[in-house]
Amino acid sequence: MNILLVEDETQLSDALKQILITNKCSVDAVFDGESGFEYGLTNIYDAIILDIMLPKMNGIEVLKNLRKNKINTPIIILTAKNSIEDKIVGLDSGADDYLEKPFSPDELLARLRAITRRNLDFVNKDIIYFSDINLNISTYELSCNNNSIILTLKEFEILRYFIQRPKAVVDKDDLIAKIWGFDSDVEYNNLEVYISFLRKKLSYIESNVKITTIRRVGYRLE
Ligand code: CA
């Protein structure tokens, strides 16, 4: 399971991340509401664990904005003990479940299994989004408005990696390790060829999305 964890208390976040990883989940942890919303928009997660009290945008707003953008990812909100109001507002705003802090790891895992089972049938996880593009993860079709083009496997993997890290600077070495493996012989030149193919395809479908080169570091999807 691919989980987005939105929790600003770093100790709790680290502990949850460890528990989830131990239970074979992959986890992206972010620490404020705005990032939670941006990551959630990519629609690549099987579930989102969302704290309510967050800097920049509170959890309820994140939840409402995601649902407004038709993101149906199952969401568990984390509420303060005895805050009946948070629970009601959360569930009314489209949360699938809530957990009262403090909670046991076993309970969290059980709730995650329950909401992902419940939602598996109607969550559209085939499409991930960024700005004006969307990417079909089963057909590798990249679309913008009415234009579309099919990506090769490597192009697809690179673009998906970017979309999973919206607006973040992606390090070239990390990208190579992730796409080709740590001990691959792939060099920067090879990577740059793929990036130039992707740029051509983005401009072919008339998208405003750009892959910007960050000198000496890597790239950023903008
Ligand atoms: Ca908090």
The domain count comes to 2
Q: If you consult CATH, what is the topology of the largest domain?
A: Rossmann fold
Mean pLDDT across all residues, rounded?
89
Major sheet: 5 strands, parallel
Secondary-structure class:
alpha/beta
CATH class wording of the largest domain:
Alpha Beta
Could you name the ranges where pLDDT drops below 50 across 5 or more consecutive residues?
none
The helix-strand sequence is EHEHEHEHEHEEEEHEHHEE
Number of helices: 8
CATH superfamily of the largest domain: Response regulator
Query: What's the count of strands?
Result: 12
Quick one: overall form? globular
The CATH architecture assignment of the largest domain turns out to be 3-Layer(aba) Sandwich
How many angstroms separate the termini?
27 Å
Helix content: 40-55%
Write out the strand line-up for the largest beta sheet, numbering strands in chain order.
2-1-3-4-5
Radius of gyration: 18 Å
Structure report:
By secondary structure, the protein is α/β, with parallel strands linked by helices. The protein is built from 8 helices and 12 strands. It has helices at 10-22, 33-41, 59-68, 84-92, 105-119, 153-163, 172-180, 188-204, and strands at residues 2-6, 26-30, 47-51, 75-79, 97-100, 127-130, 133-136, 141-144, 147-150, 169-171, 211-214, 218-221. The strands form 3 sheets. Strands 2-1-3-4-5 form a 5-stranded parallel β-sheet, sandwiched between helices. The protein starts with a strand and ends with a strand. The structure holds calcium ion.
